[in-house]
TrEMBL record:
Residues 18-115 form the AAA domain. It comes from Acidianus infernus. It comes from the Archaea. Pfam families: AAA_14. This is AAA family ATPase.
Length: 396
């Protein structure tokens, strides 16, 4: 199965020298190989050789570099994958060839983008950075049609392993081994080490802890010596790696500006399995917080629909708040199952009491019917996702 993502149009129409960058396993190489009409493509290996998939050959970097220069001078298109591994001594040679041909660099780290735009970089001003992250929920849902399975497939590597939501429980141990190795590889590419502290922070986020003071308290109880301020720094590092995102907090009672969460739903769920059930030891899991994860993905979808900003209200317990220029326009309660009349009325009242002008209800089981300002069922979410996907594809 292949999921068409909105970025394909950008990649297909790259007209200048470009760096496609982002964390590992988000589909960068697949997208470039499929949609770029290249003349020369090779991957820089860990032992600093060049692998050419077209003829399944390995060559030394000097030979690969010579082939690159020759192709650019002939106005051809060259793709260098895993560019972050290319020694910087080759960068000057590449810069001399600009703007000949089309050069597309693919890098599995955010550090490579920072080095590329550094004022001392010979490629500064010659290569445009293009960031790629996990697939937009609307892109996946518009094609998969299952709101829960679409959540998992936002990380494209899961397509080979997860065929149903039940697989998350049945394969939790194996998936934890994969996700931990993936995160370790992300740290390695960023020239950092996955320390027990970073892992503990990710486990805290997976359990739903988001406030830096609360995370700091939890870490200190486990023997780490941190402060809320230092935790903020660690979270910023994880955000730069593409592992963590922060969402604005809405509410009169708010005592913090940001809600921090793991950006990948599959990593968040599987790390929850480790934090809650010690799956790496027991190999067994209980219930996973799928509702929490789908809440934020649906929030992203509706924010795109309304051209709004997604916010969250943890103090008032409102799942989705959409903001327009900082002001709320609508709030939603999300449930995996059906709403009872009492639940619906309570949710609507809570949203309006928080100063939000409109209240919405979303059920992944059956469309609600309780006279809220907006009521959405699973079919509505699929329809909205297709509208949003088409809008972004056409716009590009």
């Amino acid at each position: 199965m292949e999921i068409l993502r909105r970025e394909y149009n950008d990649v297909k129409n790259f007209s200048s020298w470009t760096l496609v960058y982002g964390r590992r396993k988000v589909g960068k190489s697949f997208l470039v190989r499929k949609y770029v009409n290249y003349d020369l493509y090779y991957v820089i290996t860990r032992d600093l050789q060049a692998y050419f998939p077209t003829d399944n050959s390995f060559r030394n970097l000097n030979e690969a570099f010579s082939l690159t220069i020759k192709a650019l001078r002939e106005n051809k298109t060259v793709v260098i994958d895993e560019f972050q591994r290319m020694p910087e001594k080759y960068w000057d040679g590449l810069s001399v060839e600009h703007p000949n041909g089309k050069l597309i660099l693919v890098g599995s780290s955010f550090r490579i983008m920072q080095k590329l735009v550094d004022r001392q970089s010979p490629l500064l001003g010659l290569v445009l950075p293009y960031r790629l992250e996990i697939i937009h929920y609307s892109d996946v849902l518009s094609q998969v049609g299952n709101p829960l399975l679409s959540l998992i497939y936002r990380d494209p590597w899961t397509l080979s392993f997860v065929k149903s939501v039940k697989d998350l429980e049945d394969k939790a141990y194996q998936l934890y081994m994969v996700t931990k190795a993936l995160i370790g590889e992300i740290f390695e590419e960023e020239e950092r080490q996955l320390t027990s502290l970073y892992e503990a922070i990710l486990l805290s986020l997976a359990e739903g802890e988001w406030n830096t003071a609360i995370i700091a308290g939890s870490l200190n109880s486990k023997g780490f010596n941190v402060t809320p301020s230092s935790v903020s720094g660690y979270l910023e590092t994880l955000q730069n790696m593409g592992l963590v995102e922060k969402i604005p907090i809405y509410g009169e009672k708010k005592r913090a500006r940001w809600y921090y969460k793991i950006s990948s739903p599959i990593i968040s769920l599987i790390f929850y399995a480790e934090a809650k059930y010690n799956v790496s030891f027991t190999e067994n899991v209980g219930e996973l917080p799928i509702g929490r994860e789908v809440q934020f993905s649906i929030g992203d979808l509706l924010a795109e629909k309304h051209s709004a900003t997604l916010a969250y209200s943890p103090y008032e317990d409102i799942d989705i708040v959409l903001l327009d220029k900082g002001k709320p326009i609508i709030g939603y309660e999300v449930k995996l199952g059906e709403f009872s009349k009492a639940e619906a009325e309570k949710s609507i009242e809570r949203i309006r009491r928080a100063g939000i002008p409109k209240a919405g209800l979303i059920s992944l089981s059956e469309k609600p019917n309780f006279n809220a300002d907006e009521e959405l069922g699973p079919e509505d979410l699929v329809r909205i996702s297709r509208d949003v996907f088409q809008k972004y594809v056409i716009r590009r």
